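Bench log, entry 3. Co-assembly request; chain sequences pasted below exactly as received.
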Amino acid sequence: MSAMNSGEESPNTMRESGFRANLHGASLADLVQMECLSGRERVIRVSSGNDVGYLFFRGGQIVHAVCRRGIGETAALEILRWNDGTFEPCSAGWPDRDSISSNWQNLLILSAQHRDESRHREEVSGHNLVAFPGHRAGAPRPLSSSPPPPVSAPPVSMSTSSRSEASVSGESSAPLLAQVRAAVRIDPSGNVVSSKGDAAELSQVAAYAARLAELVGDGLGMQGLLSVEVTQQRSRTLIYREKSGNTFALSAAPDADLTQVRERLGL
Amino acid sequence: MSNGRITNALAALRDVAGVHGSFVLSLTGELMGKDLPAVFHDEIFVEVGARLSRFIETMAADGDEVSSAVLRFDEHRLHVTRFAHGLLAVIAANEINAAALRMAVTLTTRRIEPEIVSLLTSPPPPVSPSPSLTPPPVSVAGSHGAPRTYRGRVLTSG
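Structure output for the full assembly:
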């Protein structure tokens, strides 16, 4: 959550305000999703063991990625396969042009598929005698001819940092991501701040439903609407009223487990 | 339209720790019964009922019917369950055993459903017929000045 609420910043400067988070147990997929939903433009340095990669976010998408194995989509998929490590903003230099055109949902789904296939191969082989360098943190890797990664900024002190530093570990939440059909953030005037998927109708429904829920609460003496969660025959909808006054809504498959989302929102 | 048997059925929900009370609405938002402290007088539910009904309607705008909803507030939450003929809403504390509440709600909706159907289908109170509303007696051909007809043709005299 804090990553979503922290202030905006340009890719090469750190703002002097905002939250710094230290999340344990979050998956890289979770953090990428949060970053994309925030719509911010910035570079994130992801490290896992001896591996370091950079994800470039702009306009709610991953537009560029670099790691020792390559650049672009290849690098993004490589980074997204890492199981644990750290995730922190840095002031790396931006490329002249974007190297990734796929949307972030596709990247996460592809990454999850690759992981599943790798796992399946390991299971089929019976014994995991062969180490896959891409899966083992700290395993030696051949240096490739890809361009060197950009230089990261030194860590920013806690009192002045706007970054959200997180350690990444645990299993990917790609199954949940695959079940999220649309997500949208609306400001108090009803303008769409950011959206994913086909969120046109969701934005209207969420805005009106949240207002009605607020009025129902007022009528019954219940103040401070936090969220609305609706179970429908063909979907589940979660509407969350942020402290900023913005409304965040997501629509997911009916059997989607929203526990992670609820926990992240403090519900 | 409140019903004592509905109120009794709703009272069972209070067995779940954290439940403050509950009420039942028709699908159009009309209050059918409640088990709440006296401060929640019926007039409140004119607006609350209509809005809650609109809320459910909004969420089902694309034809995806709502089964249930949880509205979370700072200190309380409102669990709304849609059943065939109405909405059951439970006001509860935020810290509540959700599984226990779901079970209690299932049993309660099963109990109140026939009562709701009975209320919704009960005939309106009889109204005494006034002379002005009494329909005219069935006319006999040729009576009351109406022209006589034979096989659809008007018969002329003579």
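The interface with chain A takes residues 40, 44, 47-48, 51-52, 54-55, 58-62, 64-76, 78, 91 of chain B (CB under 8 Å). Confidence is low (pLDDT under 50) at residues 136-145 of chain B.
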